[in-house]
Specification:
Blueprint (H helix, E strand, L loop, with lengths): L21 H13 L36 H15 L15 E10 L4 E8 L4 H14 L14 E10 L5 E3 L10
Antiparallel strand pairs: 1-2, 1-3, 3-4
Helix pairs in contact: 2-3
Length: about 180
Amino acid sequence: MIGGPRSCNHASSFTPMKTSLAPLLALAAISAITGCASRSIDPGTARTPVATAHTGRAGSSCEGASATVTHDAYKRALALCISEMNAARVSPGRPQALLRSVVVLKYTVDAQGNLLHSSIMRSNKDVEAEAIALSTLRKSAPFPQPASHLLRRGHIDIIETWLFNNDGRFQLRTIAQPQMDS
């Protein structure tokens, strides 16, 4: 989704005349089904607020318990956390059309939000980009604690893609805007 979650209340602009409640209920049902945006948005992947615990990182959304209910929503919360903790390395706007590097990492987070393991799943062998991806991931830990129903054998596995521009700054695919046209 580009930008933050949209909110609207279709029913608030509707002033029913002296009629039955059926049309109002039908409008409410249609509004709930179609949503506010012109494209479909999975409510489980919308930006979800993350509860934070007081730690050494004032104002950080990277610790505490996550309020996310789906794997995709938790992955999005972690992507926002990684971007927040590495703001100077994150590229603003849309990723360029021809990327310098694409690095795919698989990492494991335990029930307390600790980074247990990380590995490179795919890369174009840009050693500097690989090192940046791994170091920005490590720098961001500990993460929000995943909801217990998301855990498998006490941990959750996440796969994230780092998209690198020529200047060495990156975006995470989970929260990146579409790439520029060439």
